[in-house]
């Protein structure tokens, strides 16, 4: 058993085999050598093994080897190779069947083992590679770990250093702060000291100056003098006056005069400026009034909110304006009035502008189409329409292309059909020809017969009286009539047949020509009555119908139909003929009349609407509501 | 004696077709204001170069004379002919000259010797000498009537008011030593004086006619830095030292009209200018902004920042660019025959219109030194109130010109070197700029031009001053000065006795 294992274990790969064989060879006892050889026998293809095999069993040791094998096999649980002996002493016979069975079993086992071995080998390989991979991974991860550890250590170190630095900096900052505080204190003390010293020094200096002054001035310094040839006259030509209290007062007066002059000058300037500003204000007011007055009518007509009262005020002010001199005279009241009126006007203007702004924004929001101004919605509608048109055109082009292609295709078809038809015709012709020939032959026969008959009759008439041959004649005539009738019938039938064929072929041609667009055609055929139906009442808008008819070939699908309808409705809405979707449905006549009425009524409203800033649809619905009860 | 030098560069200001396009940069948007005289191309002509010392050269207020100093000599010339009318010799090197308002007298101050000498134009033999003796002298100026001289002694002990009419001498004590401590109203009636008494700032308003104290009030300033009357003489602007942003406005009668403070805890006001209409007060500060206060509420109506980059494409940025001299000479045959020879060595420049995002050259201020080069160091309204020119000291090469009507930036000029000074033409919106180089730059709403000052050697324009008519411009260098005439051709003929004889 152990040997078995030792042998099988290294026997994982074919490369190992030889090695292990050799090793086992060197190591094994003769008995084990057998087992080795037994095992080796399971490896069939190796020639070495054969040689081994031959070495295992020789002529001489057949018995031993058999017994050995038997032993071995029995130990492994195989049945004995020997036949069951009847007696102990009798020599046991080799049981060939058992041997063969054993061999077979061994072979099966071997095969299984080989399979298992292969599996194990592959698994081992897999595992080996997995192992390698894992080892690699492990190595990498280890490296990573190492590096990260190192990094971490580095970072920790840096952190520590930074913290250290930070601490130092904090310390430094603290020191600096202390220093600053100290210095500030020093500066403050120095400043006070300096000021103190300065004052002291200045006092000393002043004392010294005083002393010096006394010394220098009191010495009666002869040098301090002015030598002048002769005194010159004053610049103003006047004589100098003595200083008295009067002069002092005069100086004061003059000073105040100068100051007063300055203030007066400034006041004048301010007055002038004020006057200018007032003028500007007045002008502004005037212009504002003139600007606002034409628009006043409308808001008043509309009987709007507070503006009316303000306007009346403004007009009052305008009346006041005529007394222009007034604002030059009294200050306070006029100023107040002016500012008030300006403020009012300004408020009006502001509200007006705001209103305009609102309107503009409303127009932009609701997209009310003013007749003068192209609103955004108009634009959008227009663009939408145009886009639709483009779409339609594209589709048209597509369909046309398709048609063209199909026509080309059908042209080929035509050829074949014509060919086919030709075939038919040929057949028919042939048949016809045949019949014709038949007919001709018959005719000829008839002719012949008739001739013979006439000849015979002549001969008979010549020979006998006519009355005798009457029945024959009659019979002949009858027969001829019958024949003719029959021929005509045949002819008719033939003609019928050919016409029918022709009709058929024509139908086919038609079918093939329209085969591509058959659905379209059918749709148009379908849509036509559908559209027509609601407008059985002649009241329907002509615009739309015309549009519809026009759009018929261009708009193949129902969705397109809807689009055209919407287009038409747009168109009509532009024409202020308001067509709501309801209208497309068959309406009762009375309702139609009201519709027309309100649509007509909405016309001036829409014109007004630009001012009120409402959309026409709004007003329309409003009016409609009014009309309904 | 005086010889007119026809300018090497005669340069028309208007964009006439005869000009080389590179010469005049024309603003794409030309407002209603025209640059030069109607229809005529103004030519620039330069006078001969005259000697000068200490940049002392002044036109008389009536525009007839030109006073200049050479060491201790005072030379009075006729503005038109440049002929010397008078030559006065002072006792020492002149350090300061000033015309009296009526153009009859001129004072020359010699601070080192504490001396002031006054000369009369009408009577050359008349003379006056004022000696401040041991008290010393640091400043001297005329009173607006032209008959009194105010001398500030050393250490600002006092101001002595000397009269030329009487023997009377007045003293004003406690004047404050500051940036601008004395200001006269434009009508010459009042003088405001900053004072310092008992460690407090005061302002005294004097009546100039008899030097009577009209008002005396203390100001709410830490350390007053300057005072200036509004052109209408009714409002006095008082600003505090740069350590604190504070602008105070006082009425003539001493009432505080308003106090304005844009921000705290930072360097404050650096420069202040009234608009000629007294309508606006422009306050330039160390934060690089100009704030415009209005005269009604005295509140800020707008703030003009001076960023280093100009992003708005509407703003025209003129950039001065060097030009190939030979190429320029070939093209600069205008006026053709007379302006032929010139120093080819000097590089000429032209203005180019820079496209929209322009970054200007900025100067990094040195933090640890006093008087940092930041903030609005100079600002001036044009005489017609339409424009305001400013200079940001941290962007030293640029001049910003603001449209006061629209209260927005109008034009930026960027020079190749730092702008030393600029001054508006007293008659029209025309700005003259000098950068200490050999060129003078003119801007008007119509365009912008860079003109090389002709002459042997380098003429470095350190300062300039306009004639009140706006027809001529005195250009001052360290040792010389010359006049630049901006006139039409007809005027040139009369201006120069012998126009072409120099070349």
Automatic annotation (TrEMBL), chain A:
Annotated region (Disordered), positions in chain: 292-322, 521-629
InterPro entries, sorted: Adhesion_Centrosome_assoc, Afadin/alpha-actinin-bd
Location, primary (coarse class): other
Compositional bias annotation for Polar residues: 538-578
Coiled coil: 131-218, 376-403
Pfam families: ADIP (PF11559)
Keyword entries, A-Z: Cell adhesion, Cell junction, Coiled coil, Cytoplasm, Cytoskeleton
Location relative to the cell: Cell junction, Adherens junction; Cytoplasm, Cytoskeleton, Microtubule organizing center, Centrosome, Centriolar satellite
A GO cellular component entry from the record: cell leading edge
A GO biological process held by the record: intraciliary transport involved in cilium assembly
Protein family: Belongs to the ADIP family.
Protein name: SSX family member 2 interacting protein
UniProtKB/TrEMBL annotation, chain B:
UniProt xrefs under SMART domains: WD40
Species this protein is from: Ailuropoda melanoleuca
Protein name: WD repeat containing, antisense to TP73
GO cellular component, one term: ciliary basal body
Coiled-coil ranges (or none): none
Pfam families attached to this UniProt entry: WD40
GO biological process: mitotic spindle assembly; positive regulation of non-motile cilium assembly
InterPro entries assigned to the protein according to its UniProt record, in alphabetical order: Centrosome-WD_assoc, WD40/YVTN_repeat-like_dom_sf, WD40_rpt
């Amino acid at each position: 058993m152990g040997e078995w294992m030792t042998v099988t274990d290294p026997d994982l790969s074919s490369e190992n085999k030889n090695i292990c064989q050799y090793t086992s060879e060197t190591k094994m006892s003769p008995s084990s050598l057998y087992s080795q050889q037994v095992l080796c026998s399971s490896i069939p293809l190796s020639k070495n093994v054969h040689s081994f095999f031959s070495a295992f069993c020789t002529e001489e040791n057949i018995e031993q080897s058999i017994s050995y094998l038997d032993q071995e096999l029995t130990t492994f649980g195989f049945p004995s190779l020997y036949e069951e002996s009847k007696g102990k002493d009798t020599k046991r016979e080799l049981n060939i069947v058992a041997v063969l069975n054993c061999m077979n079993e061994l072979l099966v086992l071997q095969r299984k083992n080989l399979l298992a071995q292969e599996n194990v080998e592959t698994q081992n390989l897999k595992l080996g590679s997995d192992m390698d991979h894992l080892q690699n991974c492990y190595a990498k991860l280890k490296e990573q770990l190492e590096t990260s550890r190192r990094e971490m250590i580095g970072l920790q170190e840096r952190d520590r250093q930074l913290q250290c630095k930070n601490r130092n900096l904090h310390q430094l900052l603290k020191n600096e702060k202390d220093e600053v505080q100290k210095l500030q204190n020093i500066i403050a003390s120095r400043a006070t000291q300096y000021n103190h010293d300065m004052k002291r020094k200045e006092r000393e200096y002043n004392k010294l100056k005083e002393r010096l002054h006394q010394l220098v001035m009191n010495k009666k310094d002869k040098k301090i003098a002015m030598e002048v040839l002769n005194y010159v006259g004053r610049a103003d030509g006047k004589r100098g006056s003595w200083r008295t209290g009067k002069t002092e007062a005069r100086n004061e007066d003059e000073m105040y005069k100068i100051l007063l002059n300055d203030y007066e000058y400034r006041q004048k300037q301010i007055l002038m400026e004020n006057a200018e500003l007032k003028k500007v204000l007045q002008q502004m007011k005037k212009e504002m009034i003139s600007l606002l007055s034409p628009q006043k009518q409308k808001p008043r007509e509309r009987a709007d909110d507070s503006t009316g009262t303000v306007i009346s005020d403004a007009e009052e002010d305008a009346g006041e304006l005529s007394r222009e001199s007034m604002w030059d005279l009294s200050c306070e009241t006029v100023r107040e009035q002016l500012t008030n009126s300006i403020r009012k006007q300004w408020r009006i203007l502001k509200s007006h502008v705001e209103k305009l702004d609102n309107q503009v924004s409303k127009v932009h929001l609701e997209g009310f189409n003013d007749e003068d101004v192209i609103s955004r919605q108009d634009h959008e509608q227009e663009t939408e329409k145009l886009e639709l048109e483009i779409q339609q055109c594209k589709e048209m082009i597509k369909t046309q292309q398709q048609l063209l292609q199909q026509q080309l295709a059908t042209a080929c078809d035509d050829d074949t059909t014509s060919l086919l038809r030709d075939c038919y015709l040929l057949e028919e012709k042939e048949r016809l020809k045949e019949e014709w020939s038949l007919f001709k032959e018959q005719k000829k026969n008839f002719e012949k017969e008739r001739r013979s008959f006439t000849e015979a009759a002549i001969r008979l008439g010549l020979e006998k009286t006519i009355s005798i041959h009457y029945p024959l004649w009659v019979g002949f005539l009858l027969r001829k009539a019958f024949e003719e009738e029959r021929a005509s019938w045949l002819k008719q039938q033939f003609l019928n047949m050919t016409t029918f064929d022709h009709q058929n072929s024509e139908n086919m041609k038609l079918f093939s020509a329209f085969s591509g667009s058959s659905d379209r055609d059918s749709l148009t055929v379908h849509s036509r009555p559908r559209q027509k139906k609601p407008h059985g009442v002649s009241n329907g808008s002509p615009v739309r119908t015309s549009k519809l008819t026009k759009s018929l070939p261009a708009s193949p699908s129902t969705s397109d139909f809807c689009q055209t309808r919407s287009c038409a409705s747009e168109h009509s809405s532009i024409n202020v003929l308001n067509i709501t979707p309801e209208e497309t449905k068959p309406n009762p006549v009375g309702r139609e009349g009201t519709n027309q009425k309100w649509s007509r009524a909405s016309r001036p409203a829409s014109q007004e609407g630009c001012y009120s800033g409402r959309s026409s649809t709004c007003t329309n619905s409003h009016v409609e509501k009014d009309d309904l009860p | 004696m005086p010889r007119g030098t026809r300018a090497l560069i005669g340069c028309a200001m208007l964009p006439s077709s005869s000009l080389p396009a590179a010469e005049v940069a024309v603003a794409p948007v030309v407002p209603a204001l025209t640059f030069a005289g109607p229809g005529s191309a103004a030519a620039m002509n330069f006078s001969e170069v005259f000697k000068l010392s200490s940049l002392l050269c002044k036109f008389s207020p009536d525009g007839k004379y030109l006073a200049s100093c050479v060491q201790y000599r005072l030379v009075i010339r006729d503005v038109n002919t440049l002929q010397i009318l008078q030559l006065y010799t002072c006792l020492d090197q002149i350090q300061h000259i000033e015309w009296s308002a009526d153009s009859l007298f001129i004072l020359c101050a010699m601070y080192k010797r504490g001396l002031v000498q006054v000369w009369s134009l009408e009577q050359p033999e008349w003379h006056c000498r004022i000696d401040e003796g041991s008290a010393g002298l640091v400043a001297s100026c005329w009173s607006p009537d032209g008959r009194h001289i105010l001398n500030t002694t050393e250490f600002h002990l006092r101001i002595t008011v000397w009269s030329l009419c009487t023997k009377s001498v007045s003293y004003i004590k406690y004047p404050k030593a500051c940036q601008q401590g004395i200001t006269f109203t434009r009508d010459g009636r009042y003088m405001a004086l900053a004072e310092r008494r008992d460690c407090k700032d005061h302002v005294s308003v004097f009546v100039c006619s008899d030097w009577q104290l009209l008002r005396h009030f203390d100001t709410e300033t830490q350390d007053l830095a300057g005072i200036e009357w509004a052109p209408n003489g009714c409002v006095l602007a008082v600003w505090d030292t740069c350590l604190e942003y504070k602008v105070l406005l006082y009425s003539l009668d001493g009432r505080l009209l308003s106090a304005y403070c844009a921000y705290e805890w930072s360097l404050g006001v650096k420069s202040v200018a009234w608009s000629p209409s007294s309508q606006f007060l422009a306050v330039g500060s160390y934060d690089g902004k100009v704030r415009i206060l209005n005269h009604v509420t005295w509140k800020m109506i707008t703030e003009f920042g001076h960023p280093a980059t100009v992003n708005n494409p509407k703003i025209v940025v003129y950039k001065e660019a060097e030009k190939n001299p030979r190429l320029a000479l070939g093209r600069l045959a205008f006026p053709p025959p007379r302006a032929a020879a010139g120093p080819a060595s000097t590089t000429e420049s032209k203005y180019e219109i820079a496209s929209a995002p322009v970054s200007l050259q900025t100067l990094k201020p040195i933090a640890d030194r006093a008087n940092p080069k930041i903030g609005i160091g100079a600002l001036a309204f044009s005489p017609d109130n339409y424009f305001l020119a400013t200079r940001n000291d941290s962007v030293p090469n640029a001049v910003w010109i603001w449209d006061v009507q629209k209260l927005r930036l109008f034009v930026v000029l960027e020079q190749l070197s730092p702008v030393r000074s600029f001054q508006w033409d007293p008659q029209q919106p025309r700005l003259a700029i000098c950068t200490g180089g050999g060129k003078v730059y003119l801007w008007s709403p119509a365009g912008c031009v860079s003109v090389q000052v002709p002459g042997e050697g380098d003429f470095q324009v350190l300062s300039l001053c306009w004639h009140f008519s706006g027809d001529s411009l005195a250009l001052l260098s360290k040792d010389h000065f010359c006049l630049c005439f901006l006139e039409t051709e007809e005027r040139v003929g009369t201006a120069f006795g012998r126009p072409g004889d120099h070349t």
